[in-house]
Protein: Metal-binding protein
Organism: Komagataeibacter intermedius AF2
Amino acid sequence: MEKITLNISGMTCDGCASKVVHALEGVDGVAMVEVSLEQGKAFVTYDSRTTNPDDLFAAVDDAGFDAGY
């Protein structure tokens, strides 16, 4: 398992954070997601044999937010 911290921009409320969690949890291979609205970050544990950071970025983007390192 790999761990990555994503910087998320555009989150303004708990509902936004929930959308990001839901989007990331929907990616195959994601084992754990924790989002900090205050820090603007998502902490993700994932199986690198199944997914990769680009898939995680795409999921956040599809949810309407911007993600980066």
